[in-house]
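<instruction>
Derive structure tokens from the sequence
<entry> Chain with its tokenised backbone below:
===
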Amino acid sequence: MAKVRMIWVIGFVLLVALSSPAFSQEPIRIGINLPVTGPVAKFGVMDYNSIMMAFEDLGLKKMDGREIAFVVEDNRGDPPTAKSAEEKLISKDKVDLIIGGYTSAESIAMTGTAEDLGCPHIIVNGSADKITEKPNKWIFSGPRVPASHYGDTLWSLVDEVIKPKKVALYYENTDFGTSSAKALREGFQERGIKLVFDQPYESGAVTFKPMLSRVKREKPDMVMAVSYLTDAIMLAKQSAEIRLNVPIYMGYAAGYTMPEFADNAAKDVNYICTTTNWDPNSPWPGAKKYYQDYLKKYNVKADYHGAQGYAAMEVAIDALKRAKKPITRDSIREALTKTNLMTVMGKIEHKEWKDKLGHHYYNQGLPLTYVMQWQNKELKVVWPLEAKTGNLIFPAPPYEKR
């Protein structure tokens, strides 16, 4: 009897503690897991700045009587560090939700951990298809676009305007590079377009001239390149040095969209095209304002990576607003499954769907994509025509006449 009474007393004390003001005022914690130092810090910092800008713009500082607090972890773009940071955020910091992931490799590491430990995670940039091909319970695409779909708008441009017979495809040997190349390869082959060069390269190489010289000998009608920023810069400069003249040089988003690409490659960026997931002149609510505000605050032009960061916070706040009370990891997860929100990236839905390439996605949306071209070191939307801010210059003039 005494033992039963003791259990009842402990239960009553616990109930009182849980319902006390001190407990109810425990903050809602959002974890941020991004590379804010290291080799890809430019992207991670843009993501972080954009996430916090969205938080300030949305003006929601409390929910269900609880403050919203942030715990930030710097993963340096390193997958093992990203995994450890995710574990810390979930197990030690007791966050209710995590936003993060720039590279595909770090995103794979952190989302696997979030799924294992049971914490809702909204991806920011990481694009490898396999991240959302698993029927995960806790992982949500947010604004990210699967790598295989970065070029969705590209194909109508290929069919209607470029019409190449020979294409050279090179891509970095990473999760993002190989996943993107697979989709591109299938797209070209489906159209009967010959791939005269189809090879990965090691990111961070000292020189790409031997590879580019082999490409030049093949005389392709089109170059298709998948690269992060540092490699994109070097490839652009060295293509100019060896006079790799092609009617169109097309990047696959990533480094080819960054303002730093033009800053470092200078005049050699001109006429290079790129797919992209966003443009500040998009018709989406708040897109232009976000771009202008970011430029004013940081004196840097934001690209689609930053817009994805901003949209990720829009998705997070929307889920918090709709989550059943009391707000828990489970109630946030449940709200995220029903996301159907217009953001600076367009409409974001978390749903299950399949594509014709054989991918089966879960909790995955699909924002629109565009094709842009660097003209006088400024990016112009050239496709689709209804969204254009400039006319495509095609074929590009040879380097000798630029």
Notes: The chain is about 40% helix and 20% strand. The radius of gyration is 23 Å. The longest strand covers residues 66-74.
